[in-house]
Hints:
The chain has one domain (3-107): Immunoglobulin-like. Helix content is 0%, strand content 48%.
Amino acid sequence: MQQHTVVLTFDEHGNVVPLNDDATTVSKNLEAQKSDRIRWISPHGAVAITFQKSSPFPAEASTRDEDFRTVANAGNFPYICSITTPDGEKHGWEGDCGGVVIIGGSTRGGG
Length: 111
């Protein structure tokens, strides 16, 4: 099992975008395996993730996107996202805000 933390930030157009693992460049695709754990966070405020068709997580999983959730389903899962800043302003959902979680079918060993 591997843990993935996706950091969301703003691009030069104000879109909410995911960064790569070391938070240095925009990376729209997150590749993981079943049983991996994923969460989304942002230094700019509270995050919300909505999967467009189906979710990589079981239905009973936590709905808090800041919490790690365990991947249960294989496939490609496009999502849109938003950040609500401390002043209550919501950014995202429209435009080029989001990415894709790509889950392989096998279970990764180790930790």
